Description:
- By secondary structure, this protein is α/β, with parallel strands linked by helices.
- The chain has helices at 11-22, 34-43, 65-69, 84-91, 116-123, 138-142, 156-166, 179-201, 206-226, 237-247, 253-262, 267-272, 279-294, 299-309, and strands spanning 3-7, 26-30, 59-62, 74-77, 101-103, 129-133, 147-152, 171-176.
- It has an eight-stranded mixed beta sheet, with helices on both faces.
- Helix 4 (84-91) links the parallel strand 4 and strand 5.
- The longest helix has 23 residues, at 179-201.
- It is globular.
Amino acid sequence: MGQVAVIGGGAFGTAMACVLRRRGHDVVLWAREPEVVEAIDQARENRLFLRGVNLPEGIAATTEMAAAVRGADFVVLVPPAQHMRAVTSQLQPLLAPGTPVVSCSKGIERGTCALMSGVLGDTLPQAPLAILSGPSFAADIAVDRPAGVTLACADPVLGARLEDAIGSGRFRVYLSDDVVGAQIGGVMKNVMAIACGYVTGKGLGNSMRAMLVARGLAEAVDLGLALGARLETFLGLSGIGDIDLSCNSPQSRNMSLGMELGRGRTLAQVLGERITVQEGVHSASAIAELAARLGVDMPIAGLVDRVLNHGADPDRE
Length: 317
């Protein structure tokens, strides 16, 4: 059908390459790590980040960003949120003007408190933007298990075009024009998953975890409304759908991190054993700062920030 570049060779970037290839596109995946590129090209597997998944034929990999985006009909961005600015600044001179970009990264930039749409507005002002977010574990969508996501785009014509290019019967895409709201749920679910994991690791029960999910959703809504999002967005896939998945499954990297903290391990010990990024760790401080700027009361997110970044003991708070 066309050519698509995927920028980011982690688990979700690799999984999206599988989704797009099954949709019929020729896919070129850019990864920073030479070992990832070598394994994909020679063994059809991303052994570093998505071990055990046999990738479809027709996915090429490269460490050369220019080669990845040359001739691309659109670009899917999947770097860690805290690296989005650096990666897309590198991408900017290589991308043909008017080439759409779809951001799948979930986070708020530390320091600026910018959503990914804000970062991309700075670094890729010439690129029409869409946001893809929703409950979709990489391990599931890579092997074609059913999932549904929100695709948020301010331009309805472009949104419909991207919906057709990405979506399928087993990877359902639902259009929205609430670009801000679609991002807030994806940010908050990572922070809330750490809190829910802590409760689970401490053995405090499912009732408390359910309370955290409900109150965390309320905090996400308050933050989103303060930024101009719409309430109904948080009742959909990129809101409660994403929060439910990440806060109820140890398969979530953020929830599993919280579980280890609840069992008494330190953040440094847990992170020292992992090669993947736990976005909630980085986003917690940015959410707390953004909430303070906006005057939004977010006690759960604030506590997660204090525990992760300021040495607070959650059992004494």
